[in-house]
Amino acid sequence: MFDWNRSCSYDEQQKRRFHTTARSRLKKLAAELALPPGSYDLRSNKAGIAVSGEVTLHHDRAYIQVGQFGLSSGHGILIRTCKGRKDYTGGPNHFVALTMLDDIPALAAAVRAITGVGRGATIPADRRAA
């Protein structure tokens, strides 16, 4: 199992493994959510040597970003709503543990609960378009 909490700072091999593994898990998440091909982008930004960078799944209505920005809190997956793939600020930020990448069904459930996106999702009344 991948060690999500091992720092990528100044460790190019760890950063490469982090990005490769996170990208693979986000592809599995897209499949678990039954996102149609073409309805999302998957991108990777390795950033500088001192940080992990981030891997992002950007759907038409959900923005999911993985990084080591919350190592001290154990949180490293940002989930929020968005209005299209040009919306980079979106709705309120929600964070879950990086280790949820090891349990894709649980991560998919969190994404559905926060964004209303995915197979079997229902959109809460306060998030429906007027």
Characterize the structure shown.
With 130 residues, this protein is of the alpha+beta class. It has one domain. It contains two helices and five strands; from the N terminus they run H-E-E-E-E-E-H. The protein has helices spanning 12-32, 104-115, and strands at residues 40-45, 54-59, 62-67, 75-81, 94-97. Strands 1-2-3-4-5 form a five-stranded antiparallel beta sheet, with helices on one face. A hairpin with a 2-residue loop joins strand 2 and strand 3. The chain is globular, with a radius of gyration of 14 Å. The model is unreliable at 125-130 (pLDDT under 50). This is DUF4429 domain-containing protein.
Can you give keywords for this protein?
130 residues; alpha+beta; 5-stranded antiparallel sheet; 22% strand; disordered C terminus; DUF4429 domain-containing protein
Mean pLDDT: 89
Distance linking N and C termini: 44 Å
Largest beta-sheet characterization: 5 strands, antiparallel
Strand percentage, roughly? 15-25%
**Total helix count?**
2
Shape: globular
Structural class: alpha+beta
How helix-rich are the residues, as a percent range?
25-40%
- The overall strand count is 5
Number of domains: 1
Computed Rg = 14 Å
Biggest sheet, spatial arrangement of strands: 1-2-3-4-5
N-to-C series of helices and strands: HEEEEEH
- Detail the poorly predicted runs: 125-130
